[in-house]
Fold this protein.
Amino acid sequence: MGIAELSLVLFGVSVLAGVLGSLLGLGGGFVIVPVLTLVFHLDIRLAIGTSIVAVAATSSAGAARNVSESITNLRVATFLALATTIGAVTGALLSGIFNTRLLFGLFGLVLGVSGLQMLRNAPGRHGSVGGLAKTAAPPDNAPVFAMAKVDSPGRAPTAGKAHLADKLALHSAYYDEAEGVEIPYVVAHTGLGMGLMYLAGTVSGLLGIGSGVLKVPAMDLAMHIPMKVSTATSNLLIGLTAAASAVVYFARGDIDPLIAGPVAVGVLLGATQGSKLLAGIRADRLRTLFVTALVVVAAQMLWKAIS
Amino acid sequence: MSSETFAYGALVPPSPHGVRAAVGRVLHIGVLVSAALLISGYLVGLFSDPAAYGSHAVEQAHLQAKAAFPHSFAAVWDGIGHGSGEAIIVAGVLVLILTPVAGLVTSTIAFARRRDWLFGAIATTVLAIILGSFVIGWLTA
């Protein structure tokens, strides 16, 4: 096999990675890196450099559409970017201090727990208004939420905990094509979300991995942001974090154009398609798909901890 | 339910459409420019040295990180001048990497023009952190 054939295979795999990556707010590295290293035995340094390029491609192509359609929450993304970028710098500065195996193991466990939690929270979000008040979570289901609002006008289910989000005017609404309605949502626990984003950024800096797998659960579980908005907003965020580190990889010579190029083209195409799918997909299906990806990534991390 | 929903929506306005559209447009342009460079660079390389693209040895050299390619701005610029396909691809990759940053610059300007000083300041800080990490990364690479 030569470069030409390799390019075609990488292009195909990357289209798939781009679709999944932009739908789920992940970089797509979890699809590309195992193929590059296990199937083609690509040098790990180049594999990580290629993965960073894939993250940038997923982010830009995915966000281009979803920012304009306001599925992405630009204010939330901008505010949280403070935490993720400072976290990424912290992680880069701390790298080498901690035992990487232990970190991968810990990270795998955290992902596993997040996945379980996301599955557990899912049914309550489609339950009654009473169940809604108990969990204080804006649902993926708009009409129920709208009723909850009418019951207590001007007071969100999370009122009292959402002061920072009020001041920053983070609350918003998006039009859900699958439901056929506009879904307003209230952002909760901004401080907690900020802390988790800092940790997510630090982990990605420490381990050289994209941290969408941590960013989406942080927005979904802690900040009660609807699933679609979480993945779309994560998508915008991962591009900024990737840009901060990608220049280093470029300068070190970790980005081989004949490998990263075909991957980038495939991811751009896939992510553009994925961002078109996001508006129409049902939120519960998106959640199931995300948790599945989370389990795959958790298994990869635990594998790195053991091997 | 729609009237209540929209009444509620009006209480908490999303970021104005102008900002989002501008950011979306910049990202879209970045993606198109990058894709054009990536594809044309690949084709230039393919047509200028078809044998290399079919060679098993060349492929293995790239997979084992033994192949040489431009990885500094000067080398990329120089390579483009000499019609190097690889340099054009790297230029496409660089455009791709910088596209999210261009989106951030756009939203910073848009926030400031709307006199949303708080978010203007937040976006500027994020920009400073990213540019700072460019510099740190560059010096340590």
Observations:
- The helical segments of chain B are 2-11, 17-48, 50-54, 56-63, 73-81, 85-113, 117-140.
- Residues 17-140 of chain B form one domain.
- The first helix of chain B runs from residue 2 to 11.
